[in-house]
Amino acid sequence: MSSYNVAVVGATGLVGREMMSMLEKRNFPVGKLRLLASHRSVGKKLKFKGQDVVVEELKKDSFSKGDKLDVALFSAGGATSKEFAPYAAKEGVFVIDNSSAWRMDDNCPLIVPEVNEGAIEKDKKIIANPNCSTIQMVVVLAPLHEAAKIKRVVVSTYQSVSGAGIKAVNELEEQVKTLLEGKKPKPMAFPHQIAYNCLPQIDVFLDNRYTKEEMKMVDETKKIMGDNSIRVTATCVRVPVFRAHSEAVNVETEKKLTVDDALGILEKAPGVTVVDDIGKLKYPLAINASYKEETFVGRIREDESVDNGLNMWVVSDNLLKGAALNAVQIAESLVKNEFI
Q1: In what order do the strands lie in the sheet with 231-238?
Q2: What is the pTM of this model?
Q3: Rounded CA gap, 294 and 107, in Å?
Q4: Which amino acids are annotated catalytic?
Q5: Nearest-CA neighbor of 245 among 217, 223, 220?
Q6: CA–centroid distance for 294 within its chain
């Protein structure tokens, strides 16, 4: 069996560590693994398949020295990706980038393998991993769109703090402790207190009064689905949950879909698990979706305010399917299609 040399850029971060975990768990045929990060992390040792791997400093020549790399999984922020991904691509390395740096670049495929694996091209070395909240939504929307053509999507997200990194996770934990001690917490990672609160702002506000996160969902959905006619509007909210994003998704379709139609379609959809038994109070929950690879959907019901509308509740682990898992699945697609 062939093996492939892989680099994880941003290896010491939350998503970088999950990328390593997914490579191991899914038995990706790694020949040599290199871990790259900023100078602050140089010398740290991380475990991979029971062995210590030493973190190296990310430099411009990181991809041109040593054993030739086949794939580089990037999760080190947009600025780092903008600077270093082209150096990797120049050396013939496939870059799978988890930041927003390349997502809307016309020369970079934006990939969710269950939806648009065919958009991967051998000569386009930089491949973008979509936004976490977008990925889980389009996995559910794509089969419905194929069956009935979606005209409009209205989505409200309930996003966990891990989507904002380890500092945000620590902040929620510390704020809960501080409040239980009867003290007032000081926000650092977020503009306001996140413990016992909901923040209707993820990322910065734009001129149209939407946040950058909301517009990511609008633009990325159209690109991944390959249909600019789909109208999308989003409200993105940070909630005091450690892991897994939840979304209330409303879709309007050209062709009517009943609840039974939707259930039948989604039960067969790749990467989707239906949890929808209201008689037994069963529906997707963030605590159940955490550390799971699937995207869960439930609370499916017809929207009685329009002729052809459906409401549903979509939940997925934002660090796995929303980031690390999707990236590794893209790497698996490269192997399957013999691009590496």
Answers
A1: 231-238, 150-159, 245-253, 309-316, 295-302, 272-274
A2: 0.96
A3: 29
A4: 132, 245
A5: 217
A6: 12
Give 166-231 as a DSSP string: HHHHHHHHHHHHHHHTT-----SSSSS--TT--BS--S-B-TTS-BHHHHHHHHHHHHHHT-TT-E
Are the C-beta atoms of residues 109 and 120 closer than 8 Å to each other?
A: yes
Half-sphere exposure of 65 (CA within 13 A, CB side): 7
Q: Are 71 and 125 in contact (CB under 8 A)?
A: no
State the alpha helices, DSSP H only, in 68-165.
78-90, 113-116, 132-148
Domains of the chain from N-terminus onward = 4-130+323-336 (3.40.50.720), 134-318 (3.30.360.10)
pLDDT in tens, 28-72: 999 999 999 999 999 999 999 999 999 999 999 999 988 899 999
Could you identify the residue written with the tokens 């934006």?
A: 110
DSSP letter assigned to residue 321:
I
3-state secondary structure of 245: strand
The residue count of the chain comes to 340
